[in-house]
Amino acid sequence: MIRHGGRIRSAAGTAVALTAVLSLTLSGCGDGAADGSGESSGTGGVDRASVGSAERSATPGPASPSPSRVYPLSKPPATIPAVRSHTAARGPGWRPAPGAGVALAPGSEELADEARLLARELKLDYRGTAAARGGDVELVLDPDAATGPAPAAPAGAVGPESYTLTTADNRVRVVAPAEAGVFYGTRTLKQAVRSGGAMPEGVVRDGPDRPQRGLMVDTARKFFDGAWIEARLREAADLKINQFGLHFSDDQGFRIESDTHPGIVSRQHLTKAEVRRIVALADSLHITVIPEIDSPGHLGAVLAKYPGLQLKDVTGRAVPGAVDIGNPAAGELVDELLREYAELFPGAYWHLGGDEYQALTRRDPEASFPALAARAREEYGPDGRIKDLATAWVNERAKALRPGGRTLKAWNDGYFRGGETAVDQDIQVEYWTGKEIGARPPVEYLAEGRPVVNLNDEYLYYVLGEPNDFDYPTGRRIYEQWTPLVLRGTEPVPARYSRQILGGRFAVWCDFSRAQTPEQIARGIALPLRATAQKLWDPRTPSRSWQEFRTLAQRLG
What we know:
It is built from 14 helices and 20 strands.
């Protein structure tokens, strides 16, 4: 007999009480305590969810050496970006364990690269095409996965980049209609294990709100070696970013080896072999590299070798970075470069540039460049203007790349209102600023039915040295204030245009190239890039506070 507090209890009674306490206090895995509601979501807004497994209960009875467990409802995995929808369930979740592996479902052999990568990252065995065992992760490619009913699936969680991740019975199953979706499911699993040690029980249904989610780096003004670029690609892939812009030609440098015009290449540059490795790595991570040879402005490095093609004003003064768009030889030179590098960059996109042509920054372009003005009138009649020649330049360069079936892009200040011609309708507008002379507001492009990509310089421009009133962007401002609808300044465009805004990119510009080292840049963009990835994946108000998001980012590394 045991005496306690003046009362006498039996040893058997004590064992029963301890069993009940243990049953109620053992907890499952997840990002926080259960609230018992059965509803959870990755970000702002409530996604209705149902309990995915029956609750196990403990009934008082004889003492047992192995008390039964009651798991609280799971919470969504802690990831960046947050998952769009998570259906809670009761259970221990899944943890990597010795002997566990990554298996491919029959017919999913195309996922071998994704499976091998995940196996290396989580220190699991790679099983190839095999039946999944207890403790395994199974990857499934199912073209019909996004077409069937998807209970509780949020808007955006369908399509080739969507996936469903189910955790139950000590297994994880990732199903998607395309390889990219499966890959993003493995990124969620990797981050969940890193942030909380386990993948919580339940079902994740996830997919991006916007199809274009990118990072752009100006490698022309500042050289970045292949290792630095590859590190950014791996970082971006874990954030479910799917584009990497490579601005490799500008006034200060031309940074990729050339066979057709070797004299334009800067001393510090990437070889074509290095670029092929970069492109191959990006492809394996489901990232498209978007090259940019900016023209007809920003061609100073090319003009240093071919000064006869440089634009001169009425006084005979050379205009920095600008080619003479009235000279057919200038177009032929740029087209040769475009065709040369089209082989090196086989991806679906190409950036034509088109911005800041210095002839059009003069108060009276026609008076400053009478030869161009005369050429414009010859081409487009008495109302023809130099801006019509600049527009035609972009359209002509597009013709050099269209045989490859690429989707083309140009900066917004290369599109002019009221001209005799217009940039081709299928060329995507990369909207970066409203600060340039004559800049058009974003609603003008949207009202014309044009597709637009958001690179708002108020939030998404990391400009070395902070010239021209640029401040280094903060992750907090992006996280708390920016959405894809905020194309210019701080005000969003009307929501009716939302589907025309295809996504956005965070951009690193190296105006003062020595202001930061590559390592400082990598650290400086880490939080802004993560905030951008979050808002492109899901633009709703995040459920985590900024401080919680920042802490999670540090935990994930």
